[in-house]
Here is the input.
Amino acid sequence: MPFNPLGNPALVVISDATDAPIITTSAGLPNGLKGMLYSYSLSAVGGVDPYTWTVVSNALPSGLSLDENTGVISGTGSVACVKSFNVKVSGLDGRATTNAFLLRIVPPGQLPYTETFENAGNIPEGWTELTTDRANWTFRSGSPIVSEGGLPTAAHTGSYNACLFYANNSDYNTSKLISPMLNLGVGTTNATLSFWLCMSNIGSWQDRLQVYYKSAPEADWTMLTSFTTTLSSWTNIVLALPNPSSRYYIAFEGWARYGAGVCIDDVMVTGDLVMSAYEVWKADAFGSDVGNDLITADGADPDGDGIVNALEYAMGFDPLTVDTEGLPYGGLTAGYLTLSFRMDKNAVDAGVLYEVEACTDLILQDWSTNNISPLPFGDSNAWWQAMYQHDAPVTNAPQRFMRFKVTLPTP
Ligand SMILES: [Ca+2]
Ligand SMILES: [Ca+2]
Ligand SMILES: [Ca+2]
Here is the structure.
């Protein structure tokens, strides 16, 4: 670590020409959202700059690229997937370091989730209201009675906040404003709800808010906390969300009677989402049905095409459309029995194991991977067209059967 060669003794140069640059970005990159612009900068220290950044093994999620000069990964992820890849950073002197990275492109509905209520005064898409009384949530700027001293005078951000207000009855009128189903994933840590609340009083009249969650559509609501006292300016509320699941709901239940209204804005749900590549594929394919085992189990076949979900994934098919193109096929090639099938590249990258077996007797079921050899694979953009042969010529055996099986990686 020599002193700055320009001679300023107060400055120490971090780089050392004898070392390679060291990547300081940690392996797990922030998730990207499918269809949304992604940008994240890799960084390194040491070595001799300027650096050159290159992907040296495997590939980035499709739609993303690495800028070789800046180390910025950017673009719009077009496919929900999980990709691991290696990036090399080289200093000007050619010394280089390579690190492994993991990047998930997850479908919408995953974390982080935000709602700003900017929907032209209407309830946002996917939100519902469950009211048992006379009051309804409205979407407006601030309290409905600013002219009488009600607060807030405006939305926390933008032009709209949600508000439950009622002034025609001294009993509480309650209504739940319910989020869309949120996929908090499995094994997520630090699931957190953040929102802004303003709930001012008029004279001695005070509205209330109770916040609820449930981990499944069929579950009962569980109360997280309640607010019963005046908050006369926008206040950030942060709550831990227990029992994260892939079918999670949050409800804001206002209790309104003569107060200035229960006003909320800028709802955000965050967490360290942990999803396997297969879970990402399922979340993308099944949307709000995720968690419904009748549709999404590995062995389920919701489109009725005879291909179960695990195989739809492994072969790059659509689990909700009857697939007729690209099905596995067998045949004879130069006197050998062959079997050909698609291997989706994202599934291959995620560690799905494809095994080809043969047997001579379906009653004995003597399946074995012996004497099976790969032939050259075809390369489509999205999949490999795998081709395997059984190494005994068909003239040597009157009957033979081949099959392949896939094993999903353990999450
Ligand atoms: Ca807003
Ligand atoms: Ca199917
Ligand atoms: Ca299908």
